[in-house]
Design goal:
This protein is α/β, with parallel strands linked by helices. It is built from twelve helices and twelve strands. The strands form two sheets. A six-stranded parallel beta sheet has the order 2-1-3-4-5-6. α1 packs across α12 (about 320-345) and α4 (about 75-90) crosses α5 (about 105-120). The protein is globular. Mean pLDDT is about 90; it is low at about 345-350.
């Protein structure tokens, strides 16, 4: 039995459950029945969100058996799960998918290490990342063994694609994690003839930034409206201020919408975009390069179509739901093999 923790209310089939079932596995989903979007968007409600993570983890532990595998779609839930297993003396195999832990202030880093490390060093705890680069980073920051980590790239967001449609509407920029609004706004000021629609999370936005005249800034719009704005855009831009994973949900969603992309060059974005072939990549913080590439792409319909079709082809061929599930099963088998080897090493044989 494979158990999966998701950090939302399951109202429609979850692709990973369906794909694993197709491979012949029994799969149980544990969701958050009282999930509330405001828990993420309103600052003070983060406490409610973490309490829901704890309840989710507790329910999963209570409804599974010793040595059962529990996969956490959200990394934070895996930390809650690890502590509950420790407190209740329960033995579970935990797989945390795609750790994202951006660097904080020195004090915050020290605190987070103290919280994460006891769980990350549990014998039955394993983690996926989407680049070798991130393994080195997390091993050093959290003092965790390298053999805890496995490479698993994020899959395509949807199998339903939207045909490419040339437009001259606006550049869309949206998201919350590690968005480099300062660099973006400097690039906007260099392209006053182009309209930008930006959607940010208000609790993370730097209110001291000056908003250029060609930028329409929105905060915390509903999910459906967010993607409708993306759908009607000419190009999508993903400016990031960290080399750690960020922006991939937007990137993959834009890809299935056949939207050409300009994104910050990071180990994550290069898994999907080949510069000048399936999109434009620019150096982190380089607003001049960003402004030039936005201008070139926005004004070249043939290049837009070329980038969009190449990106969609690359993602559907290399990052499908089926490939993601297949790679996950490979990792699970490697984990089982490792744990079995460790167990055999601890057996004392007598002649």
């Amino acid at each position: 039995m494979i158990n999966i923790l998701i950090d939302w209310k399951k109202e429609k089939p979850f692709f990973l459950q369906e794909e694993l079932k197709n491979l012949g596995f029994d799969v149980e989903i544990f969701d958050i029945p009282n999930y509330n979007y405001k828990d993420r968007s309103v600052k003070y409600r983060i406490v409610f969100l973490y309490l829901k993570y704890l309840k989710l983890a507790l329910r999963a532990v209570k409804n599974t058996k010793n040595d059962d595998l529990i996969i956490c779609w959200n990394f934070t839930t895996s930390i809650a799960l690890g502590y509950i297993c420790k407190l209740l003396f329960k033995k579970r195999k935990i797989m945390a998918l795609n750790i994202i832990a951006h660097s904080r202030t020195p004090i915050a880093e020290k605190l987070r290490k103290k919280i994460f490390q006891p769980v990350m060093n549990m014998k039955n705890y394993f983690i996926s990342v989407n680049s070798e680069y991130y393994i080195d980073s997390y091993v050093n920051r959290f003092d965790v063994a390298r053999n805890k980590f496995f490479i698993l790239n994020d899959p395509i967001q949807s199998t339903q694609t939207i045909p490419f449609k040339p437009t001259s509407s606006y550049v869309f920029v949206g998201g919350e994690a590690q968005r480099d609004w300062e660099t973006l706004f400097k690039a906007c000021e260099a392209n006053l003839n182009i309209k930008f629609i930006c959607v940010a999370r208000k609790k993370y936005f730097d209110s001291t930034l000056t908003i250029p005249s060609n930028v329409k800034l929105l905060f915390d719009v509903p999910h459906e409206h967010f993607y409708e704005l993306m759908k009607e855009s000419t190009i999508v831009t993903i400016p990031l201020k960290s080399q750690l994973p960020a922006g991939l949900i937007i990137l993959l969603k834009a890809a299935v919408m056949n939207k050409p992309i300009v994104a910050t060059h990071t180990p994550s974005t290069t898994n999907y975009i080949k510069d000048s072939t399936s999109g434009f990549l620019f150096k982190q913080g380089d607003y001049n390069e960003l402004s030039i590439k936005i201008s070139i792409l926005y004004n070249d319909k043939k290049l837009q179509s070329y980038f969009a079709s190449n990106l969609l082809l690359a993602i559907t061929e290399n990052h499908s739901h089926q490939q993601y599930a297949g790679r996950l099963i490979e990792i699970i088998r490697q984990i089982d093999s490792k744990l079995l080897d460790d167990k055999n090493e601890n057996i004392t044989y007598y002649k």
